[in-house]
Amino acid sequence: MQQQNDISKLRNIGISAHIDSGKTTLTERILYYTGRIHAIHEVRGKDEVGATMDSMELERERGITIASAATHCVWGENHINIIDTPGHVDFTIEVERALRVLDGAVLILCGVAGVQSQSMTVDRQMKRYRVPRIAFINKLDRSGADPVKVTTQLREKLGHNAVMMQLPIGLEAEHEGLVDLVTMKAIYFEGESGDEPVEREIPADMQDAAATARETMLDAVSMFSDELMEAILEENVTEEMIHDATRAGTLSMDLTPVFLGSAYKNKGVQPLLDAVTRYLPAPTDVKNMAVDLANDEAELEVVSDPEKPMVALAFKLEDTRYGQLTYLRVYQGTLGKGDTIFNSRTNKKVKVGRLIRMHADEMEDIERSTVGDIVALFGVDCASGDTFTDGKMDVAMTSMHVPEAVISLSITPKDQKAADNMGKALGRFVREDPTFRAAVDPESNETVISGMGELHLEVYVERMKREYACEVETGQPQVAYRETVTRKVDFNYTHKKQSGGSGQYGRVAGFVEPILESDEGSKDFQFVSAIRGGSIPTEYIPAVEKGFRECLPKGRLIGFPVQGLKITIDDGQSHSVDSSEMAFSAAARGAFRKFYPEAKPQILEPIMKLEVEGPGEFQGAILKTIMQRRGQVIGSTEEDGFSRVESEVPLSEMFGYATDLRSMTQGKAEFSMEFSKYSPAPAEVQKELKEKYKSKIPDEEE
Amino acid sequence: MYRKFVNARSPMRLLENGLHGGLGLGNVGALIAGHGVGKTPFLVGVGMDELLRGGTVLHVAIDQTVGHVKDFYDTVFAALATNTHLDDPQRTQGEIDHRRRIRTYPARTFNVDRLSEAIQLETETGARPTLILMDGLEAAGVDPEALKAIRELSIGLAAETWFTIEAEGERIEGLPAPWAALWEHLHVILALEPEGEVVHFRALKDHDNPDLQELRVGLDPRTLLLIRS
Known about the structure:
The complex is a heterodimer.
Chain A: E1 10-17, H1 23-33, H2 57-62, E2 69-75, E3 78-84, H3 92-101, E4 104-110, H4 117-128, E5 133-138, H5 147-156, E6 162-164, E7 166-169, E8 177-180, E9 185-190, E10 196-200, H6 207-221, H7 226-233, H8 239-251, E11 256-260, H9 269-279, E12 288-292, E13 298-302, E14 311-320, E15 323-332, E16 335-336, E17 340-343, E18 349-351, E19 355-359, E20 362-365, E21 368-369, E22 374-378, E23 387-389, E24 395-397, E25 407-413, H10 416-432, E26 437-440, E27 447-451, H11 454-468, E28 472-474, E29 478-479, E30 482-484, E31 489-497, E32 504-514, E33 525-529, H12 541-551, E34 565-573, H13 581-598, E35 602-615, H14 619-627, E36 632-639, E37 642-650, H15 657-664, E38 670-680, H16 683-696
Helix pairs in contact in A: 10-11, 12-13
Chain B: H1 3-8, H2 11-18, E1 28-34, H3 39-52, E2 57-62, H4 66-84, H5 89-97, E3 100-105, H6 112-124, E4 131-135, H7 137-140, H8 144-157, E5 160-167, E6 188-195, E7 198-206, E8 217-220, E9 225-228
Parallel strand pairs in B: 1-5, 1-6, 2-3, 2-4, 4-5
Antiparallel strand pairs in B: 6-7, 7-8, 8-9
């Protein structure tokens, strides 16, 4: 494998979109046309091989992509690293992590269904990470395909300045090829697998439409180049000018060029690859920021310069049949086999034994990688999100946005073998996926896993079974409730114990109040010491804070974490002999026990933002599914016979929603869901939760 | 301040006084204003007043997103809660949001049939509107026939209906040309015009009353709240 030297010819791209819009099929075709694979396998593998990028068995079975797999290919003189990203919202962290290391992306849209709810979620994420994108409208061979409508939706629903760079020659069963509006040639894809794109004249009956569409395209694109604008007036436009202007608009994220095709029918993929290399940014076009650990975490730019000290980000860990793989993106400098690198979080030294370039399930050893490259290392002990350097710089790449886990599930191994493997499996999943957590509940002694949704946890339970022969029984999914206080109360508590030997004495007094939305600082917990005159000696104040903090993980209403409270201590008393850190911690805990019921505590429940989309005739049914779940409909949008309902629904009501929605809408509606906020649960729900908790713990500890 | 006091002191009461009792159930009113003067804040202000008084609002917006309209309501509510020291704002907002539905349409797909379907669906799911607000109708185009049909819907629901019309400039002389034929079908027509730091409402038509009164209500462009002026 030749070394990638010219950084301007490197592209790190993601292929991101709604589930079932054809990402994996498109990736498969890209790998085929770039010579990385020599046969095409379909996603739901009739040939029982499955698409190359779906490297996990489970993904093959479900026909969806769960974990990102990185792969590398060459198109002309250009090197392309592709991260295949999942399309289901429960795996959004995978998408977010992929976006963090990408320079550009291809947004795939289904030519029939158009912009769906998940496309919107993914698009928001791309905006957050400022990833320039080009769009590919796929499935033009399907009945009902309408690329013009989808392009309009890109503008109206996602707010893109979308411009068609091609026109389809025929649609649905008649889809034959494309008209390239830059070259003004028709392209047909000949050969058994569409391997040979052939240019011909535009069909006579499309000449006028093509001329009009080119004019529209030039109008949009020329906004990004004065040279092109002048050339249009003087009628001496060149292809190069159009490419340059389109690239400028794409890089500034002010333009989304739209390409067309049918990956399944082998049409439109090669022109899309040309577009990727022409319009999406090289690593040198993107500004990447790190934090300078040696300078109070000040922001610092890492430069795409191979001569500078090496900085790389571990963005994904994966346990493969060859052992643990750590995927890295090199942001600065070069990384070679035999190099010694440092983990800036742990300061541990690591020797690079093997440097790998991944191609889905296969890999190739390389000697050296440079700026912008995505490579993998073997056997490196680190967590996802760690930064590696060559020791010359003390930096960390900006941390990634990690959403809160909202649902948990208790798991119990079915047999001894499963018990032996469970820890290993969980340890790996936790390192791989920051939104997946595992812990042992000290009371029930059960292992509890938490994550972003039902499907998220189900997939890990399945993976434990398949990859680690670890079968577990699962409990009822448990919502991550919170507790909070709603009113200000004073407290004054003395902890005194005198039972022979040295005694314990500490008095704490002050007040507790809810943290308001408008308050500055942490929204979870604030501790303020307003002690004057040493009524509590300074050395005991941290112990008081510690005592209060110890009460937070387990509220006294239903045993869930307490948040949103500010405790101020303004008085207290100590004893010259009997006071100690332990005594003041105990006093704080005692005060907490006393004031908590007086501060009118209440239960907060996680509220999810739910978007449901389906044919207009099912809107009533969709609304009903939301209303039945204590949902609040925010609004709905109707377009072209489709309706999208936006709402907020408590997570506790969402179990089994997929099944209900399917049965109410004949399987024609779909939904996406993400955490929105914590809100007070209704009184009857609070009452029920409290009774349930009390029945589990009859004798409340004091 | 308790909600009932906020309602009693609402500038909407002043507007109603100036309009001889307000728009009236089953009636249709229009607000005319130049671009960016405050058409949407007016609708949101009227909607917020209705919600705080226990009504149910259907807010129809053409060529906007649901999120955009919701942000308007959230912003106006936050400003109102702060200005009036509203009691327990979090609970109040949660409660009123349940009675507000936003429906958005691309201009090319909106017509009276869509509105009628929407009302039926909202009614079936427990949100029968007592106030209908329509923003951006000019893009969808409304003729006297459509307006008559909208009126029928309002009468059927015993709801008030307000919509906005965009004018060319800031000074409003009457209904803009394409809308002139609607004059007789509208019960109330208001103009919203900037004057100094505040924008003021002026009645152009008040049912059949020949004596148009000064309305003494404005819109604060900083808070987007309706104010006494």
